[in-house]
Amino acid sequence: MRAKHGGDWYGFQAKYGRFPLDYSANVSPFPTPKNICKAISLASQNLASYPDPECRLLRRAIAEKEGVPPEWILCGNGAADLIVRFVLALKPRRALVTAPTFSDYQHALSILSCDIERYVLKEENGFLLQEDYLSVLSDDIDAAFLCEPNNPTGALTPMPFLEKVVKRCKDTETVLMVDECFNNFLDDPNAHTLKFLLENFPHLVILKAFTKMYALAGVRLGYVICSNRDLLEKMEQAGQAWSVSTLAQSAGLAALKEDDYVQKVRRVVQTQRPFLKAGLEKLGIQVFDGQANYLLLKTPAPLSAGLALHGILIRECANYPGLSNEFYRIAVRTREENERLLSAVEEVMCQWQNEL
């Protein structure tokens, strides 16, 4: 079976008979922008025709937004699709992933029975990469994955060290995929991206998605940026034809115009992340410093089960390699929702402490 992800509202509804307040999926706390919904509706009038297999209009729009040539972009059916394509195109014999991190890297590698090496991110180091990571990047590592900011920790690797990693991968001929899907939620996204290295480092692949920022999880749309056209062509051939639907392409084009919406989401994250952190710490829960739109928590209290009875779904993190059943991840949402969450957490913590 695939690893468990957040956002399983259907499973929650089937078990508890109601739709949850979903803190388990790290998506925008606001509804999908109306103009994106209108674009999808208009596109639905042309469903008899096949979608553009090369996503020409969308790739040009992404290229303009990202400041890169359209030839460096490949679109896919969400980030997960592109991770699988990346692995199938490379066919690595040995790969390096961090732990904890997003589980789909390992899932994709397991399709080819690739030998997977884990670099354990330690709690006492704030779940950050350390200098010895460079030595683990040896000549026998064909592919490596990094998530910036990391999921589920929200931690950011300092940029000077990331540049060292990219250069080390060039020396070892390791193809590096850097997942920047949560980059747009950072206070200053342009200060923490490796796009400026792409031209001189064709072994670098940057992964991005529309899912999180624009509340488009149900549409499935992502893309990679890479200056290595041969690799992009292999990735394109590694997946099914017409993998990006007409509806998804139209949604992406509309999303790229939603600058005001992006700023609105970013302001909420900037104000509500510290509010949530302070509120949870006041209740005796350990909260790790994260820079994205989610927070990693640690408590021996049965937080997930208790909050479910309040109609709130959070992400259990026991299935992340390197974490235990004391770890949970929550998204950052609106002030009203966060107050409801904190009130429910307080009740769960009080009940648990009374039962000790």
Automatic annotation (TrEMBL):
Transmembrane segments: none
Gene3D superfamilies in the record: Aspartate Aminotransferase, domain 1, Type I PLP-dependent aspartate aminotransferase-like (Major domain)
Family annotation (CDD domains): AAT_like
Cofactors named for this entry: pyridoxal 5'-phosphate
This protein's UniProt keywords: Aminotransferase, Pyridoxal phosphate, Transferase
Recorded GO MF terms: pyridoxal phosphate binding; transaminase activity
InterPro entries: Aminotransferase_I/II_large (IPR004839), PyrdxlP-dep_Trfase (IPR015424), PyrdxlP-dep_Trfase_major (IPR015421), PyrdxlP-dep_Trfase_small (IPR015422)
Domain called Aminotransferase class I/classII large: residue spans: 24-344
Annotated protein name in UniProt: Aminotransferase class I/II-fold pyridoxal phosphate-dependent enzyme
Organismal lineage: Bacteria, Bacillati, Bacillota, Clostridia, Eubacteriales
